[in-house]
Amino acid sequence: MSLFQKFRDGLKKTSTKLTIEIKRIVTRAPRLDAEALDDLEAALIATDIGIGTATAIVARVKEDGSPDVFAIARAEIERELCCTGVPPVPGRTGGTPVQLNKAAQRPTVILLAGVNGTGKTTSTAKLAHYLKSQGHTVLLAACDTFRAAAIEQLKIWADRVGCDIIAGQYGADSAAIAFDALEAATKRNADYLLIDTAGRLHTKANLMEEMKKMRRVLQKRLPDAPHEVLLVLDGTTGTNALHQAREFHKALGITGLIVTKLDGTAKGGIVVAIARELKIPVKFIGLGEQVDDLQPFDPKQFAAALFGE
Predict the structure, then answer these.
(1) 158 phi and psi, to 5 degrees?
(2) How far, in Å, are 14, 78, 171, 216, 257 from residue 305 at the CA level?
(3) What phi-psi label fits residue 6: left (phi over 0), alpha (psi between -120 and 50 degrees) or beta?
(4) What is the DSSP letter of 261?
(5) Which of 71, 85, 114, 253 could be 118's S-S partner, Cβ–Cβ 3.0 to 4.6 Å?
(6) Distance of alpha carbon 301 from alpha carbon 298, whole angstroms
């Protein structure tokens, strides 16, 4: 299955809702009078796309005087998502897929953060699967020492995707485990070290301090680590995901986003709202339950799938 088809299938609920509403509005008022434009803005906002983006799309529709709302929306969404620092892949056309930051020398350390229930642990494993499929060696670190069965869950995933894992006991110092994992990844010359951290509420300062401690401990061994701090967000939570992103970014300096469960929501526009406000690139999106359903983010294909008439 092509990447675009995965996007299209995964965003079906959001896209279907938008298509039905837009067609209803355009059919009722082909010239898109003031009332129709208000209805269009409301339909866009209902997908959690963000007031700013919805207003920009409506302004473009009004300015162009064109009923091709889909084409205008696709162009505006792609433009906004491409303003978040996502680099183009040399030699590739038709979009600007994301690339992960990479260390000058191995290993590249990636820290995954987020609140409980976002799919952080499974995203860690799926990211490992994706990197292995690209020919890289990956080591996992089970640094969620608080949630019941979190270590076992990651061990099961590690076995499934064929990765080694460094783990400790429940209640152990997660920063110490991360340090040990970095030592192991360095000795094994691994390409990537993926660190699964404990889920924490974005409103709890003491839990955020633990993440900062982990960063400091890693930097004692590797001064520029972590090379990525990826925040895992649940797309079904809509605007609450935006609130989480704000607080985590303020505390940790998030370098990229993974937005999960987009196949289960009609509010997939939240991806656009977060990227627009925080200017943080969306690096991967989760479009299903299978191990290969974590996909590198491509603004052009995302926009085409979201507003595919």
Answers:
(1) -60, -40
(2) 9, 11, 44, 40, 19
(3) alpha
(4) -
(5) 114
(6) 6
Q: Is the pTM of this model over 0.90?
A: no
Centroid of chain to Cα 273:
12
Task: Give the whole-angstrom CA distance, residue 142 versus residue 193.
Answer: 11
Distance, CA of 18 to CA of 7 (rounded, Å)? 15
Over the chain (309 residues), what is each successive 10-residue block's mean pLDDT?
74 88 88 91 90 93 84 90 52 55 95 90 95 96 87 94 93 93 97 91 70 92 95 87 86 90 81 86 87 89 83
What distance in Å separates the CA atoms of residue 57 and residue 62, rounded to the nearest whole number?
A: 9
Q: Taking a C-beta distance cutoff of 8 angstroms, is the pair 303, 107 a contact?
A: no
242: helix, strand or coil: helix
CA distance 284 to 269: 15
Q: Report the distance separating Cα 176 and Cα 223, nearest Å.
A: 16
What DSSP character marks residue 163? -
**Residue type at 240?**
N
Task: Give start and end residues of each alpha helix (H) in the chain.
Answer: 3-10, 12-28, 34-45, 51-64, 69-81, 120-133, 150-161, 174-187, 205-221, 239-252, 270-278, 299-306
**Widest Cα–Cα separation across the chain:** 66
DSSP string, 114-150: --TTSSHHHHHHHHHHHHHHTT--EEEEEE--SSTTH
Query: By three-state DSSP, how is residue 238 classified?
Result: coil
Residue 88 corresponds to which amino acid?
Answer: P
The CA distance from 93 to 200, in Å, is 39
Four-residue CA torsion sign, 183, 186, 189, 194: positive
Asked if residue 107 has a cis previous peptide bond (ω within 30° of 0), the answer is yes
Structure tokens at 216: 């400091």
